[in-house]
Structures
1.
Amino acid sequence: MSLKRILDLKVSREHYQSDALIIWCFDERFDDYRERHPLMHLLFSVLFWAGIKRFNPETSLLRAYIRQQKFRHPDVLKLAGGAKALAFEGEGNRNALLHQIWKAIRLHGAPRIVLMLHVDCGAFGGSQAFGDDPSGEMKNHLGGLSVAGDFLRQEFPDKKVDLLLADFNGLCALE
Amino acid sequence: MEKKISFRSSADHYIADACVVWCFDDRFSDLLRKFTKKFKHFDLVKIAGGAKALAGDASPERDFVLGQIKTSVRLHGTKRIALILHRDCGAYGGSKKFSDEAAEKNQQANQLFIAKQFLTNEAPGIPIDIYFADFDGLYDIG
């Protein structure tokens, strides 16, 4: 066995309290790790704060959400389908995800849990699984978010649970 | 429903260069960002303990993580898999569970070999890379 360091980076050893536990789909269209060139980032930031909201300085919807919520240390669980396992899958997957949530909260004490589903999600078979009917797809996802939210509120009565639906134009919260 | 954010996301589908299985510990997020720069597109399975469940005995959690990787391959034609464990992981009880730093690194490397062997059987033909994330950077385990 050999270990070869391939990246140098000083990582903080400090433990942290999480602002929120976010359960998000791994579909890269709704989150990526690319950075803008610093000058482009600055330009976008100026335009965004000037009120031209289409110039969001963040490169993905998840990062824009984290910035908007001013989270310093979010715990992000990224999974195929996001919150899907809590509402649409069998007991084994639901319990496995629940176990992940318990672990995250035990370790970093997040006071909020954020659940996300998105349109055209491959884990659901994409929009075509709903006959390319946006209203049918939305109804399905909103129903699922509601079920998942109720389930988590029972499991974690002291936590705030937020429900989010993402599409290609942004993010909506289910009230 | 209340609109929270307007943001234009691409609707284009993609082929993933890799499925990266990484722990959700936010201390290592910058290292993750640096590591994944080499991929044009990738799927990130970000869970408590990273690859830990894949090194364990049969369990619903192991099936769940395996299902995540298989979904990545099925949906995005994922070309390779990267498994990561890190120093002072809360899912293992932290560094205090090990006698010293070298013992922790060795045990995590062994865990990664077990996880790699399991995945090699479950997803034959897909290259699997294993890494240990430390407080001074990322180590390739050869």
Note: Chain B touches chain A through 66 residues (CB under 8 Å).
2.
Amino acid sequence: MAKRRAQRQPGRRSGLRPADPSRVSHGVPVPLHLPTLAAFGAPPPPRKWYWLPRTIRPTREGWWFVGATLVIGLAATNTGNNLLYLMVAMLLAFLAVSGLLSEQSLRRVRLEREMPERVYAGTPAAFGATLLNRKRWMTSFALHLKEANPASGSGVHRFFLAIPPDGSETWLYTLTFPRRGLQYLPGLILSTRYPFGLFDKIARPALIKPILVYPAVRALPPAEVPAALGLGSQERHRRGRGAGLYNLRPYRAGDDLRLVHWKTSARAGSLVLKELEDEEHPQVCVIMEDPPVDASADQVEADLSYVASLAAHAIRGGAQIEVVTAEGTSGLGAGERHLDRILERLALYTIPRAPRPIDAGGEREVRVRLGRRGVA
Amino acid sequence: MSLVLTFRLMGHILVLDALAALYLTDTVHPAALVLVAGLTAAAWRPDLFSERLGQLPHFWELFTVGFLIFALADLLFLADSIIAALLHLLLFLVVYRLFHARTPREHLELVLLTFLQLLAASTLTASFGFLLVFCLYVVFAIWAFILWDLTRESELAACPGRATQVMPSGFLLSGGYAAALALALTAILFFFIPRLGQAFLPFRAPLGVQTTGFTDRVELGTYGSIQTDPTVIMRVSFPDDPSALSRLGDLRWRGIALDRFDGHTWSLSRSDVHPVRQAWQGRYLIAPYELGVPFVSAEVFLEPIGTTAVFVPPRVVGIELPLPRLGMDTAGSLSVPIPPAGRIRYQVLSQVAGPNPGRLRTSESPEDLAGLRARYLQLPALRPRVRALAERLAAGAATPSEVIARAATHLERNIRYSLDLGRATGRDPLEEFLFERRTGNCEYFASSLVVLLRAVGIPARLVNGFQRGEWNEVGQYLAVRQRDAHSWAEVYVDGHWLTVDPTPRAAFEERAFGQSGWIALSFDALRWRWNRYVVDYSLLDQASFALRLRQRSMAFQSATGRTLGQWSALLGRGVAALRRHARGLLGGVALVAIVCIALRRWRLDALDWRWVRRARRDHAPVAFYDGMLRLLGRRGYRRSPSTTAREFLGTLIAEPPLHGRAEALTALYERVRFGGQPLSPMEYAHARTTLREIMGLPRGRR
């Protein structure tokens, strides 16, 4: 949600508000205040009116071509031979046609991007880009689509030979973000060397979108799973949606047919339904303490990744979890949406200059001190 | 067809096109070009060729070494010029690449070799055929370069399989569009690239085959073959006034005047040529002009015909020639120092004929009269019959002019024009012409007249040149052909040289040659335009075009200024009128605005105009129901699109007065909407009354 909100209103909110420690109260979720986008990653390119929409770079063949044109032009001027002038005019016309056709190829080509649901730091995430040729008659030829990979610095690239009028082509690729946090996608760069390969005409990077990169989530080995999460679920001796049998009763219209106890029904001669016993899931509170001043950033990041993995492990194991930091609490909850809330909070966690106190605690709490991981 | 295959095909077509360009240059032997063309066709399936040659070990290595040895010998001893030797080498490279092109880059190298061929051809020819070759080259080169780019990029993008696939749809359209664009832009750029170079003699090989015909010695009968040759050697346009031709009368293009006759051959006794005064760069003053006589300006394109003579119309005043020197001999003939290697273009300014159209200026002063008589009365030993004829024609004549007229008339009436110059006897050529054969061409006629006049003491000379030529209606120029070569006489009478042409060739030509067909004229016009606007395009043309553009721009500005002035005056009057009636206008505008706002606010609902009612009844049969919905909407009852009229009526049950009226209107609505029965005027009035009642009902709480 926060990610979607950030995409919708980039830079609308002010910077990260340091939460008042007195406001942190156990169990009451504190709304997450998104930082400005400029606080993370590269700033978006300026969109001023005087910016040219394209960058043109001659290729090696282009330099040769221009050189040959100059030499023949010099010969024509020196000799006054009009047929040499005709050759020069042809070469210049080729240059002009190159410019016009390359523009024609790039014009009215629309880019659409497909984003993954979640992006974890250090894990390749699948993206999609679709090129739509909105021209009615002209095919777009020889289009290159590139995007820089934040992890390696080098880009990923795809060549489209031709996109017919009103046609489209889709490209699926992966990007890896090395760091967590709110970052910018580098932007899709559409370029072409069409028609003669003399010039590389590059459009401005498009679809530079903010993206929230969650901390890396990994499968926790049993040794790293705290005891508070190892208790499993407990039956609560009341009707519910658990696994154990609570009661048998006659079937009523509207009941779920999957719960019919067929053996008993056969014996009784009428449909008998089994009622299930409710189960109680463990509730865990992860208290994430700020790192000490001398903690290494890598260790802090590793510990954040651990907390994220812990939350994922707990939620996928059916537990209810709450993550409390000095900035606030995620509230107690379960399910994937709640996991998203926790991961967003962890993704946007900023390391303070000095550790802040957290006044929280409970029966089944897991305390993680960033940079000095110790599990209680 | 796959991208690679199409690219190969384009490469082969470009090779053939470039060979055609080389053919136009006459630099490479046609047999060599035919051989390369055949190899180009064979190279389409190089595997078949290689299979046979594969039996010979190191064929290509041996062939290459052999050719390099030949190329060295060619450069040093065999070829006519260095460029010819280089072209031979270029052709070898083309053949080698044709059989060894595997990758797209190697095919591109082939295309680049064809470009070098075209480039070489552009410096060696100015033929009209080059235009066709060039246009084809542009079209196929565009396609070839596009295919090269697509093929290479497909390979670079690590999808080589794509490159061998069928050409993408839209390629032909895009390539055709690009080719048309390139041709149009080439034409535009060609005319706008500033011609900074001022090379007087373009670096260009001799254009076509030079034809001899004009020398300082003319033997009788030598024009026989030339006079049937239809090759155009001179094109003359009148850029200032195309109709000026009609004012030039009996136009002849004077080339060289000959004074010495030995009985068989005419020659020039004095070869001294003095330079003509150059008033400005390339502008020569031939003679002072006469006041009151109009000028005619002609632009001449003279093909290289191996003569130094500069052909001009009679009474020439000045000439603009892009050559550093122009000479004039003692007989008034203009010439350049050496025969031009290429086509020359010059502009001639002459004065049209005055009272005596045949009269020419004399370059001799009265003091030289004795010398003039001695020079132009020279005769070889004449046969008695010839002298007797001359004396008979002059007998009893009062003036030299009468003698001239008698002699010319005698020749015209008694002798027939013919190009059959076979000698029947071993007599003196003129005696045989005048008394035995009685047929001959213009040289015999002119020579006879000059000899007859000289025999009776009238100075005369023979002039060679061209007669008028054929007017090309398509191109609006005069085409002078080889067969228009002509001889006539100039006679010195009363201090002036008079042109006299005794040859009756008009009827003969009409019979022998007729008029050129429309296609021939059009083709020649195209060739002329190619020469005029491409090959000989110059800075002067650009300046002239710029000047015309400026004049038109100024005329446009002037016209626009006048129009704007008129509009401004009109606007001024309008503003003044507005000021006078400002209050009334403002009031009117305010009134209209108020009415518009009111109409928008009330949406005509409250209006009870009869025409509105009628319009509503006719055009919106259920408008009353819409009105009811709007009124109910204001009260909070809104009908959703999924609600039927009856269901909506059910929501009003809480307000019986409203419900009752709405029920009546709903019934009417259902009848009109679904029963197809329009409201009668009475029902319509009733519906409107009901609406007013709804409007007047107090609002209940919802």
Note: The first helix of chain A runs from residue 2 to 8.
